[in-house]
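Severity: low
Component: inverse-folding endpoint
Summary: output formatting inconsistent between runs
Steps to reproduce: submit the following structure tokens with default settings.
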């Protein structure tokens, strides 16, 4: 079965058992990413908070000067994504 829906946190309906849906509690980060992009649909009325954290490597703070400003050229580095490793974490909770 092809996953199409994200159901309420503790859902255990037939779709959840056959893999057409997954309960929010068991949604993986990649599943949540598919929800954010609209590839999957949420099938419940509750508001869901999606928390996305992006961790850059090297860390941005390491580039900052003591005054909190970025050195000249750092902005260009940020735009050249291939120079950065980005680790993206996604979690979701019902509100
Ligand atoms: Zn279900």
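Observed output (run 2 of 3):
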């Amino acid at each position: 079965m092809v996953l199409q829906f994200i159901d309420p946190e503790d859902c255990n309906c037939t779709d959840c058992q056959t893999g057409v849906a997954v309960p929010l509690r068991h949604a993986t980060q990649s599943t949540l990413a598919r929800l954010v992009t609209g590839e999957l649909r949420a099938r419940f009325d509750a508001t869901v908070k999606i928390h996305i954290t992006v961790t850059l490597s090297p860390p941005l703070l390491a580039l900052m000067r003591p005054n909190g400003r970025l050195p000249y050229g750092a902005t260009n580095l940020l735009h050249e994504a291939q120079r950065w490793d980005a680790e993206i974490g996604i979690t979701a909770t019902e509100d």
